[in-house]
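Example 9 (inverse folding). The structure is encoded as follows.
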């Protein structure tokens, strides 16, 4: 079975170990998100350098890193596990971004832009996880 559409580019066979995470659009979007978060946190107060800034940067890097690690593992079971971790990190980042905006560390326009980027990555991760789960159940002999 092969996929088409918004998930992988070019097609990647389900069930095979992926070689390069850069073949996934969600990886590239998550990478852009990490860069965006680094740029956005540069403008935050220096007294937050070891607080919220560091947490936001770690969460942003965690999203893309977990996608990459999942792609480097041996099969869809591990990939789904790491995609789920990436989704959790994206949700954490969404919360931290909201806090930064409520504390007036980030203006409304950059906040909205970053928040929409996070939501886009979350949707992509969710769709990919949902797409992969039936293949895991089928490999376990479940209908």
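The amino acid assigned to each position is listed next.
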């Amino acid at each position: 079975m092969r996929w088409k559409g918004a998930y992988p580019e070019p097609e990647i066979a389900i069930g095979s170990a992926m070689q390069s995470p850069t073949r996934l659009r969600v990886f590239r979007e998550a990478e852009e998100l990490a860069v965006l978060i680094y740029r956005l946190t540069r403008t935050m107060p220096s007294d937050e350098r070891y607080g919220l800034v560091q947490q936001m940067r770690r969460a942003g890097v965690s999203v893309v890193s977990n996608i990459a690690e999942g792609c480097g593992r041996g099969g869809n079971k591990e990939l789904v596990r790491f995609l789920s971790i990436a989704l959790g990190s994206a949700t954490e980042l969404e919360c931290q971004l909201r806090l930064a905006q409520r504390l007036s560390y980030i203006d409304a326009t950059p906040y909205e832009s970053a928040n929409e980027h996070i939501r886009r990555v979350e949707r992509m991760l969710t769709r990919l996880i949902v797409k992969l789960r039936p293949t895991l159940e089928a490999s376990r002999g479940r209908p």
